[in-house]
Design brief:
Largest sheet: 6 strands, mixed
Number of strands: 12
Distance between the termini: 42 Å
CATH class of the domain at 240-502: Mainly Alpha
Radius of gyration: 23 Å
Strand content: 5-15%
Helix content: 40-55%
């Protein structure tokens, strides 16, 4: 198991979200947030920005196709993940007077999604921030000006610079007296990183700064949905078994437990959570409809748009597959093709796998007679979010570390559970369906051809949606999973971590003769 109770993901912002441009959440949403967090950390406005990707990592091999450099600069400019201007961020930065350079070099980490910012201000100030994109839009800043730190952008943070003779423990105690629940996250050299439950008011910051031994401090605001007063520091559940036990004890559905989890995580009311989830449903529907009706400009243009073609073939009665399965596949492809054209989607849980959940639940809603913008679909999202929260805690959504089984695969498990509850199945059946669907794709490689989210990603979204619906039907017919959901998730993580090839265009379909030829053609045309 990876993280367990040490990680407390938000269902709306880490599991079902963010609402973002495609084509990749780890290469688009995460970098936007890294740039925004860097902007928060730096005590000056950058006028020069040098971005370095780690040689041999995923960013270095795929940043052109994913527009990762644009995403990082968009964050430095203060833009969010759904800003339609992101593809033009480099030009916008230079037009505003920011000098930008992008390079590939050797960074002191083996993380495939590592990036280093070196920035200078108008008056000659300088700063360095290094961080990583952790999958599904999650991020982590690991060093500031060469000092080790730990910021994930989800909670308020105090960065305190102490004088050489000051004791870190004494400073941390003072901070805790001003903010109950404050905790030391890292201490390296002069830099202390202290996590807060809520931001300190100006008078408390002034009190802290007046203490002897402090050379300076900076409060860093979250770049994710900010938690409110009363938000919980520990998750409501950290495993599928705990999730199931809560549902049984409360005689509730998984969607109800998911809503309670998120209410604790963000301090939001139930209606606020449902309204936000409803907005996500609207974005998913718009992406599906756009993918089924428009000719989309796929970033690489190496495949024909398939969702619309499959949907029309099904409508004409020309397909072998039909009904709910065929529609689920077509919808999933349509949504993922919008992502591949840098359109607006919901990363549920990632942009690379963003079509699976809407494909499955919209097709199931039609089969069951539900409106595709109604309460049943919102509930389905919350069910999926509860299952995804367990996946995020026990594994990862980062395909660069564990393969496509944690992108479209995780989306498949979330969708399978959602479809079961839409049909009136029990929480136990929902988790069994999630388990079976994951077993069906265990070990799936992540191998984007030419560094683009087109081949084989789009077709895998179709497979994921069909897998989810079929797994739901298998369980609802009375066949349970022999292996519990938690054990399958742990196996997914363990299997992925021991894979010899990461998602850097260095394995699988990406290194077939045709895959290499497409890569060379795309890189030549993009220069």
């Amino acid at each position: 198991m990876k993280q367990g109770s040490t990680y407390h993901p938000s269902i709306l912002d880490n599991v079902l979200g963010p609402i973002t441009l495609g084509p990749s959440s780890s290469h688009m949403s995460g970098p936007v947030r890294l740039g925004r967090l860097t902007r928060e950390i730096l005590p000056f406005e950058p006028r020069q920005a040098e971005i370095t990707f780690n040689a041999g990592g995923s960013f270095a091999g795929t940043y052109r196709g994913h527009h990762t450099d644009c995403a990082l600069i968009a964050g430095l400019l203060g833009w969010d993940t759904d800003d339609p201007r992101i593809p033009l961020a480099l030009e916008q930065a230079r037009a505003s007077g920011m000098e930008v350079t992008v390079a590939v070099g050797n960074l002191p980490t083996d993380h495939p999604n590592a990036v280093r910012f070196r920035a200078k201000g108008r008056s000659g100030e300088s700063g360095e921030v290094m961080g990583t994109s952790e999958g599904g839009g999650a991020i982590r800043v690991s060093s500031i000006d060469g000092c080790r730190t730990s910021l994930d952008g989800q909670w308020p943070i105090l960065l305190i610079y102490k004088k050489p003779d000051a004791r870190a423990d004494d400073i941390a105690r003072v901070a805790a007296s001003l903010s109950p629940g404050a905790r030391m996250l890292a201490c390296d050299g002069p830099l202390l990183t202290i996590g807060l439950a809520e931001p300190l008011p100006p008078e408390s910051l002034a009190t802290l700064l007046s203490r002897p031994g402090l050379a300076g401090l900076r409060q860093v605001e979250p770049v994710f949905l900010p938690p409110r007063r009363g938000a919980l520091g520990t998750p409501l559940f950290t495993s599928g078994m705990e999730l199931l036990n809560l549902a049984v004890e409360r005689r509730a559905r998984l969607c109800d437990i998911g809503l309670d989890y998120e209410a604790g995580r963000l301090g939001w009311t139930g209606p606020e959570i449902r309204n936000h989830a409803g907005r996500m449903v609207a974005v998913m529907r718009a992406a599906r409809d756009r993918g089924l009706s428009e000719e989309l400009p796929l970033c690489g243009g190496i495949v024909k748009q398939g969702g619309r073609r499959l949907y029309e073939a099904v409508r004409r009665g020309e397909s072998i597959s039909s009904g709910t399965m065929a529609r689920a596949a077509a919808y999933a492809m349509a949504v993922n093709e919008v992502s591949a054209s840098m359109g607006l989607i919901v990363a549920a849980p990632t942009a690379g796998g963003c079509g699976v959940l809407p494909g499955a639940i919209f097709a199931a809603a039609e089969a069951l007679g539900f409106r595709d913008d109604g309460e049943a679909v919102v509930d389905a999202l919350l069910t999926a979010g509860a299952v995804g929260a367990v996946f995020a805690q026990r594994a990862t959504f980062l395909a660069e570390l564990c393969g496509c089984q944690v992108e479209s695969g995780a989306g498949t498990a979330m969708a399978a559970a959602a479809v079961v509850e839409m049909k009136g199945g029990t929480p136990g059946q929902a988790l069994d369906a999630a388990s079976i669907s994951l077993q069906n794709i265990l070990g799936m490689e992540c191998d984007p051809v030419a560094g683009l989210m087109e081949v084989p990603c789009i077709n895998r979204n179709a497979l994921g949606a069909v897998n989810a619906v079929l797994s739901a039907d298998i369980v609802l017919a009375g066949v349970g999973s022999a292996i519990p959901f938690d054990e399958v998730v742990d196996t997914v993580y363990e299997t992925g971590r021991f894979r010899p090839v990461q998602c850097s265009g260095a394995g699988g379909l990406a290194v077939t003769p045709t895959g290499l030829a497409l890569r060379d053609r795309f890189h030549t045309e993009s220069k």
